[in-house]
């Protein structure tokens, strides 16, 4: 029996509609696994979902309300606030506390970085970075789809800071994370050049030879099959040489082609942890919250990832 925790994310987003749509699957999986929605005290709910005050030993799909929240809040779908941002962040922290207690895997539903920061959480950059802080280890975002796996070497940082972040990137930590991931088995790796046309031999920038090549050499010393730098504007075209894993220099360089090619089935997997954390590859979608058109494909893909038979770690 596997234990799966779901942090609720922002309660004014599409998240509760996703849970409603995926409810039959969650109930079915609950026959064999322990699944908990970690939520705050507020008016958004999943119909017919039993709420508990503490975990139980048996299988099932339940709601688990974390303590110490004070008065219940009332939220309107599509209307985020500092209160909903704080609720989302506190739900994440509560889920991490339960994870450490139960050794569970984790699904994090989308939250808004803007509203978490507006709630007074200084320096918040996202789930991946928060997990690194909580577990005192380097973590890496891998976008995983049916055909593509992409790791952005820098995540939620301004474009002007990408080179600075790459200079202090933890290549040894990435090597260990790739080698220990149950979702990667001796992968072939292609890394994208940071500059147009991969720098054209230094004519359009030297980061490929001064930063990326030095880091990639550590992956190669660990017996990983790495090739590059690849020109990012053609690496994902039909007919281009395929790789099991792509390393992108920055967030949008890797995530734009990934989302275009993988659609709504993509899953964000955090590498570097002793458990599996996954998240849908979409955001809060406040603009359509409450309109009944939210697509649960991403959440379903997360659930399928957690219960599938994993490949043997390297």
UniProtKB/TrEMBL annotation:
The keyword Nucleus does not apply. Pfam families: PdxA (PF04166). Gene3D superfamilies: Isopropylmalate Dehydrogenase. Keywords: Metal-binding, NAD, Oxidoreductase. The keyword Metal-binding applies. InterPro entries: PdxA_fam. SUPFAM superfamilies: Isocitrate/Isopropylmalate dehydrogenase-like. This is 4-hydroxythreonine-4-phosphate dehydrogenase. It comes from Leptospira bouyouniensis. The lineage of its organism: Bacteria, Pseudomonadati, Spirochaetota, Spirochaetia, Leptospirales.
């Amino acid at each position: 029996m596997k234990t799966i925790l779901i942090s609720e994310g922002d309660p004014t987003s599409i998240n509760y509609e996703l849970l409603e749509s995926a409810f039959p699957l969650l109930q079915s999986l609950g026959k064999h696994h322990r699944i908990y929605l970690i939520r705050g005290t507020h008016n958004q709910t999943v119909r017919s979902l039993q709420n508990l005050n503490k975990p139980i030993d048996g299988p099932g799909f339940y709601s688990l309300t974390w303590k110490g929240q004070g008065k219940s809040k009332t939220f309107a779908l599509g209307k985020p606030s500092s209160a909903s941002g704080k609720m989302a962040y506190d739900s994440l922290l509560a889920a991490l506390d339960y994870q450490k207690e139960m050794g569970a895997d984790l699904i994090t539903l989308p939250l808004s970085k803007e509203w978490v920061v507006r709630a007074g959480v200084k320096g918040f950059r996202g789930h991946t970075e928060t997990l690194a802080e909580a577990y005192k280890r380097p973590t890496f975002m891998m976008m995983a789809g049916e055909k593509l796996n992409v790791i952005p070497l820098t995540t939620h940082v301004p474009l002007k800071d990408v080179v600075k972040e790459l200079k202090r990137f933890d290549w040894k930590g990435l090597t260990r994370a790739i080698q220990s991931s149950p979702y990667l088995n001796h992968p072939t790796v292609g890394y994208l050049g940071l500059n147009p046309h991969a720098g054209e031999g230094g004519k359009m920038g030297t980061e490929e030879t001064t930063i990326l090549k030095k880091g990639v050499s550590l992956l190669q010393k660990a017996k990983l099959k790495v090739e590059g730098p690849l020109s990012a504007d053609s690496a994902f075209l039909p007919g281009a040489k395929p790789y099991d894993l792509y390393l992108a220099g920055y967030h949008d360089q890797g995530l734009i082609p990934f989302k275009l090619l993988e659609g709504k089935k993509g899953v964000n997997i955090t590498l570097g942890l002793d458990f599996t954390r996954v998240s849908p590859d979409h955001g809060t979608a406040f603009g359509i919250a409450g309109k009944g058109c939210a697509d649960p494909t991403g959440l379903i893909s997360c659930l399928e990832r957690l219960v599938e038979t994993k490949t043997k770690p390297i």
